[in-house]
Amino acid sequence: MRYQQDQALPEEGDLVMATVQEVFPQGAYVTLDEYDGLLGFLHVSEIATGWIRNIEHYVRPKQKVVLKVIRVNRARREVDLSLRQVTNEERRLKVMEVKRAEKANAFLRIIRERCSSMSDDEFDRCVSLIKDEYPMLYDMFEDVARKGTKVLEKLNLPKEIVDAIVDISSKIPLPKVEVGGIMEITCSRSDGIDVIKDVLTSVEGNKHNADVSITYLGAPKYRLVISAENFKVAEKALNSILQSVQKGIEKKGGTFKFTREESRKGVT
């Protein structure tokens, strides 16, 4: 098994992983790793902006590069590509996507070995069911790691495959992001300290699909950190908590100010 697109040719605008085959002054020929080694052409004008003295300063034989598809001739099966139009963020995300796909396929090979009593046809049928639900196969392993076998129930997979998936999923690192900042909270009431404590305790105990940590730094500052599986979930929790704290404090006559800190990525 290998990671490849279902379609025979990429679409204009797609990002592809390619292997450089031949380099010459006018450009480079590459093969597209995800399309069974389909040949593509990278013209020198699409390698970098400005004049290029030595093309091998940018691409060289056997190098893996992320390229953008800029033209496709389906009749002739010709693909023109660009390196200079790929942003750093696009490159990072594409490399991550390919690495995750490679890991997922390696996991499938392990599962196949563990399910040796199953016929090839039956195993391939199960893989097709999984891919229908999870086109990006690695997402399934992360989903199982987070939520357990309930995410597989509707697929009606054989127990031996489910057991193998669960075992592998339990060992993969889960992505985590952290967002937060410094809250400055005051309340001049005689019971101001208790008011602040009650407000912060209430939001810390609520469920936000994220881990919430509030640390006292010394009056009037408190550090708020939200840990979640992705930025969308983390930001939603952060906004909800900030609104609750501000509303709760100001309702009691206090003041509230929030200063954002730099977000972080990591794994659990």
Explain what you see:
This protein is of the alpha+beta class. It has 3 domains: 15-84, Beta Barrel (OB fold (Dihydrolipoamide Acetyltransferase, E2P)); 89-169, Translation initiation factor 2, subunit 1, domain 2 (DNA polymerase, domain 1); 175-260, EIF_2_alpha (Alpha-Beta Plaits, 2-Layer Sandwich). Helix content is 36%, strand content 28%. The chain contains 6 helices and 10 strands; from the N terminus they run βββββααααβαββαββ. It has helices at 88-114, 120-133, 138-147, 159-169, 192-205, 231-251; strands spanning 15-24, 27-32, 38-43, 64-73, 78-82, 175-186, 211-218, 221-228, 255-260, 264-267. The strands form 2 sheets. Strands 1-2-3-5-4 form a 5-stranded mixed β-barrel. Strands 6, 7, 8, 9 and 10 form a 5-stranded antiparallel sheet that branches. A hairpin with a 4-residue loop joins β4 and β5 (78-82). α5 packs antiparallel against α6 (231-251). The longest helix has 27 residues, at 88-114. The protein is flat. It starts with 14 loop residues before the first strand and ends with a strand.
Structure keywords:
Alpha-Beta Plaits; five-stranded mixed barrel; DNA polymerase, domain 1; 6 helices; alpha+beta; OB fold (Dihydrolipoamide Acetyltransferase, E2P); disordered N terminus; single chain; flat; 3 domains; 268 residues; translation initiation factor activity; five-stranded antiparallel beta sheet
